Amino acid sequence: MQFDVIIIGAGAAGMMCAARAGQRGRRVLLIDHADKIGERIRISGGGRCNFSNREVGPDNYLSQNPHFTRSALKQFSARDFLALIERHRIPYHEREHGQLFCDDSAQDIIDLLQRECAEGGVRWATGCEVERIERRAADGMRFEVATTQGTFRCAALAIATGGLAAPKIGASPFGYKVAEQFGLPVIAPKPALVPLALAPETLERLQPLSGASFEAETRCGGKPRFRADLLLTHRGLSGPATLQVSSYWQMQEYGGDKKQPIAIDLLPGLDVPAWLEAHRHGNILLANLLAEKLPRRFAQEWCTLLGFDKPMAQLTKRELQAATEALQGWTLMPSGTLGYAKAEVTLGGVDTRALSSKTMEATAVPGLYFIGEAVDVTGWLGGYNFQWAWSSGWVAGQSV
User: Which of 1, 2, 6 has the alpha carbon at shortest distance from 367?
Assistant: First the structure.
């Protein structure tokens, strides 16, 4: 059977691409190895899908080519997807930092995408494994895709198979293998938006702090600061503040730089030097003072761990300075991550320098497109990765 477009991967980007192409009058086949589509969407955002963010721009993404996202995000913006949400009368709400969630269920997003695909007359092949892809030159059909449900030919082929995060629901390196088959470079993938592990000796030292949770501000080197909840676990660091900074910690390896530790501001937004100075001559224990701002058990154990378990009046000038610096930038060096099983997304992927930023087409392989998480574009936590799926899928669907 012949189609104008075959899309492999019926996730967020794949369905968006299929819907747009179909509504432009293209004959579209959407292939997915799973019987149940949209599982990543279904489980996201606690089942309510953080589908986008009010404030989305290139600065919210990591890539070896940081300006690559600019065109797609401009062509199909967060406002455009929000208009689609409203047209389908899906109730939604906004949380902190501009995050947008469904009021009811992530299933609403899956249903929206399926309706959009139906409007475009998209054909589906679910529970369908791709066995091989070959390039052709005859009759305008550039590619042949052999599957467990037959062999199909197409003029344009879009790969939307995602990255390696969440292996339990079918993540695979399929997209990277296709890129390599056609000579496109791939930036080595790594887990991103992921909890960070600490070395055994560090964990042993921090064991009394395990279970503590509080708002903090994290940073890695000179990269952005992220203010959100942080959780100390029996394995390392977790919580949104950790997930956000983890991508930047992972990114350091690409440049061959020596990895920098994570710096944690335990009292973000507070003028720590002035606050401590105001209590400089009192008999209150530093731990009790900190307990006004931090969980009491954490404050006590942290002061003991760092040797600050004294009344304020007994701290020397040097000790007070050390305490100030530690509160504003407590540094911990991760030993690694908790891997793809705990990762929200994948860092790395198909090198964007081999793709057109306007269409997502491979510049050296006419008719071949890569979209969504398969590409070396990784967003922050907070709806940015879904917006990249919508934007990259839409522009590819507009071009195929």
Answer: 6
| Terminal-residue alpha carbon distance, the chain | 18
Tens of pLDDT along 272-290? 999 999 999 999 999 999 9
Note whether 200 and 181 are same-domain residues.
no
DSSP 338: -
Tokens representing 8 are 């492999």
24/376 Cα distance (integer angstroms) = 27
Domain that holds residue 274: 196-337
Stretches in the chain below the pLDDT threshold 50 = none
Could you give the count of Cα atoms lying within 13 Å of 197 in the half-sphere of its Cβ? 12
Length of the chain equals 400
Q: What is the pLDDT of residue 269?
A: 95
Question: Three-state SS for 39?
Answer: helix
Q: Residue for token digits 């306007």?
A: 358
* Residues 224 and 350 reside in one and the same domain: no
In 3-state terms, what secondary structure has residue 185? coil
Give the per-residue pLDDT at 258: 84
Q: Which residues pair with 52 in a beta bridge?
A: 100
**Residue 102, both tokens:** 């469904």
Residue by residue, DSSP assigns 277-308 as HHTTT--SBHHHHHTTTS-HHHHHHHHHHHT-
The answer on 279 and 146 residing in a single domain is: no
Instruction: Determine the Cα–Cα distance for residues 308 and 55; give it in Å rounded to an integer.
Output: 41
